[in-house]
Structures are given as C-alpha cells and as structure tokens.
Amino acid sequence: MNLNLTEDQQALQDTLRKFAAKEFSFAKRRALAKEGAGEAISATGFSPAAWQQLAEIGVLALPFEEAYGGLGGSALDTMVVMEELGRGLMIEPYLGTVILSGGLIASLGSDSQKETLLASIGSGESLVALAHQEPGKAFDAEVLTTSLNGPGDGLILNGNKAQVLYGAQSHQVLVSVNEANGISLFLIDSKAQGVTWHDQKMPDGTRVARLELNQVSVSEAARVGGKGAAGPALSRAFDVANAALCAEAVGIIVTLIEITSEYLKTRKQFGVTLGTFQALKHRMVDMFVWSETARSATMLATVRVATGTAAEAHWACAAAKVQVGDAARFVGQQAIQLHGGMGVTEEMAVSHYFKRLTCIAALFGDIDHHLGVVSDVLLAA
Fold this sequence. Notes:
Helix content is 52%, strand content 15%. The protein is of the alpha+beta class. It has 3 domains: 7-126, Butyryl-Coa Dehydrogenase, subunit A, domain 1, CATH 1.10.540; 129-224, Butyryl-CoA Dehydrogenase, subunit A, domain 2 (Beta Barrel), CATH 2.40.110; 231-380, Butyryl-CoA Dehydrogenase, subunit A, domain 3 (Up-down Bundle), CATH 1.20.140. The longest helix has 36 residues, at 231-266.
C-alpha cells in the first residue's frame, strides 16, 4: 500500500484542518464539553451544527460503499480524518456512529438495512451507538449476560450495557446478545419502551452512557446479521476502532508538540526564551521521536486492517495501541511539564489534549490488555 497521501486525501486533510480552526475553537470545545454536566440526558454534548457540516463535507459517508450512498473511502482515508479530528480535539461522535456502528451495519446488514441506515448516517440524520460492553466485563467479552427470550416476533431483550459512546444522544442502538452459541446484534430505537440511559461525561468531555434494557420488545426485522454470527464482525470492528483511535492520538500528539514548541519560543526565563535551553531542546527531540514511532505503528495497523488477515490486523492494532499509548503518555507528560504549573489548568489547551489521550488509552482495551494480545501471538510463533 502506498502510504503517501493522494491529492484527494491532501485536500480532505486541508479542508478538515481549516474547518476545525474556523468552526471548532478551543473555547467552543470547552463549552460543549461542559454542556449537560449533571443535567438531563437530552443535552447533546457535541455540536449538531458541526456534525451537519461534517456530513456536507462528506466525512460521515466516507467509509461506506457508493452503492449505499457512501464515498467508498479507504482505511487510509479514515486515518486522515481521525488524525485531523484529533488535531482539532473535536468532540463529535464519529468513532461510535460512523466507524463502529456504521462499520458493523456495512459488514452484517441486509441490503435494505444498508440502504436505509448507512444513508441516514452519512447524511448526518441518524446517530447510531453500539452497546456491547457489559459492567464488569472486558470490551471484547465473548460471553454476555444480556438475554434474548421468546419466539418469533415476541423477542424480549433484558440486560445492562456499559461505556456506550454517545448512547443517550443516539437515535438507534445496536445491542449485542448471546444466541445460538454466539453473539447476535439487534438494532433498536434508543427511546423505546424499557430502554433507560444513564448519561455520563468522561474526563475529556466526551459522553458515554450505561444502558438498562428491561423487557424491550424486538422483532426479527431488527436483527443485523445472522443468528449468533456477529462475533467475528465485532472483533474486526474493534480492531478498526483501535486503529482509528491511534490515528486520533497521533493527531493530538503532533499538536501537543507544536503547541509546546511555540510556548518555548515565546516564554522567557532569566531574560531569554525557554527554547534556547539545551535540556529543553533535548526533551522536544524525544517528543518528536515518540511521535514518529506512534505514527509508524498506526500506519502499520491501518495497512493490516485494509489488506491483512484477521489475525494480522488484530496483532497490528494491539501493537499500535501499546506503542501509541506509551507515546501519548510520554508526550503528554512532557507537554504538561514544559508548560509549568499552568499546564494542568482548564485554561490551557494542553491539559485538554492530555485528558483526551488518557481516555483514548483506556478505550477498547488499555496498554496491559493489548500487551497480553501481543505477547500471546509472540509465544505462539
């Protein structure tokens, strides 16, 4: 795979960067992150106007096939988008709706489901969340407690889900259940009878929710994919999501380096700028080296997701999550320290970027989890 950006990808990158700079200022981001804290779940926690603008740019339809209203974008296109979302520290629910839910619908859905759902996601009309993780269980658990009872169109869902990205703000939700010795997915209305959301705000301002399902009626028409056949697609969806998160983290890491470099060029101590101190120059070089290793690992994960086998993609995404997580921690800590005491304040952008990096490291498996994946592969080789 040629990793050099095409003219179209460069244009997309430039468009998103200008869009973030013009429409998504740091002050606006802080206001959105605070919205709805401790209030009713109707608060969006993101900018609906910005979401519609992303739809008009074509970003929301980018990964989907042209036959279903998409643009037929590649894994590298997604990497470009996620990196720019990271640079702009945008708070929109792109990961949960487009990459996770949209990817699963594109992989498992019927033609009619794809035509309807992917088009509505791509146009910005629908937010779809994935409810898979359960309280006290890992994100990739193969045995779920969420139950499905009843024959035919009398199916009933019961259970609890955790860490549903923008679940309370969604219009529809994909719910995973155990069925036929496997995992099945059903698409339900987020406001259906028996559905209860407990909205929460993560440290970086993004929104997650806990979901309670109490005697929720579903029909066979709501099934996405075959009975008990969603397991492999879910595994791939989380690999794709982790590769996307790594790309977002790279965008944040690069931006932290730029912000810190600019600060060192202007902040003075003992009558000279901090950037003239040799020790601080060495720190900046170390930060740059870590950023390059993170980008390389992310590119490898992106390539494996696009062209590799399921096992190759799983290993590469796990390795990238480890490498990017280490890079994020190092660069984030250095950026905070080089800004001095101000680095941890709400008024400084570096603190918000570092919070987002910390949340990225915990989503869909932390460093320890993915180290286990990598070590298992190496031991089996």
